[in-house]
Amino acid sequence: MRARFDVRWATVAMAVTGAVATVACSNSDSAPSTTAASTTSAGTTSSTAGAGGAGSASSSSQSSSVQSVVASTTSGAGGGDPSGCSPAPSPGTFHALEDTLIGDVKPSSMCKYTGKVLFVFNAAELCGYTGQTTAIQKLQSTYEAKGLTVLGFYSNDFGNQGGNPETCNSKYGVTFDTFEIAPVKGANARPVFAWFGKQTSPGPEMTSEPQWNFSKYLVARDGTWAKHWSTPTLPDAKEVTDAIEAELAKK
């Protein structure tokens, strides 16, 4: 009895080995990623065979399984780009950056805003300038349909005034995207503001880093920096709305 049992399992093992070899050979001319997927699929099949369920599997069904695995690992959003965007954002632009939205656990790419004119500012709940949020929200409401998106980045860098972002957003009826509290200046600045800090300001505010809460930045549709205003400049000042409208007019 033991001899017949050993022969039976030897026969099953040979059948599975032959099926795996067939799959591997059918993909021998594929890219390295395809070979890796074939190995994974074959490993899964081998495990199933050990449970007594793969003896009837054909090489054609295994090949189909491999092709499915390969498709799922190579097709993904953005054609495999880590940002998940298609096409991939241009290196060195605002769209190639990332940050963490309030309530999220990991960063998302700024490439989701590609094609939009962006009004960016460093937000705070407890600042004397926080009342500007009303006018900033109005910019979002007025120009959103034309292609403007407002982005608020909370920070404790100035007077430790970041406060509670959720409370601030609720108080001012904020509908635009806001991001978790993080530094906006110095060596540890979050990616978006580190990007601003490494460039030459287009003016009228000539410093690149924010000097206080509610420093305002305008980013063009192509992800380049267009304008920069200092904290005291009102969000609905004519110079600001004129610049926004000029960028929105560009296609």
Summarize, please:
The protein is α/β, with parallel strands linked by helices and 251 residues long.
Please provide a written account of the structure:
By secondary structure, the chain is α/β, with parallel strands linked by helices. The chain has two domains: 74 residues, no CATH class; 156 residues, Glutaredoxin. Helices cover 39% and strands 12% of the residues. It has seven helices and seven strands. The strands form two sheets. It has a five-stranded mixed sheet, covered by helices on one side. Strand 3, helix 4 and strand 4 form a beta-alpha-beta unit. The chain starts with a helix and ends with a helix.
Write the element-wise H/E pattern from the N-terminal end onward: HHHEEEHEHEHEEH
The total number of structural domains is: 2
First-to-last CA distance: 81 Å
The global form is globular
What does the secondary structure layout of this molecule look like, with pairings?
Elements: H1 2-26, H2 32-50, H3 59-74, E1 98-99, E2 108-109, E3 117-123, H4 132-143, E4 148-154, H5 165-171, E5 177-179, H6 191-197, E6 216-219, E7 225-229, H7 238-249
Task: Fill in the keyword field for this structure.
single chain; 251 residues; alpha/beta; Glutaredoxin; 2 domains; 5-stranded mixed β-sheet; two-stranded antiparallel sheet; globular
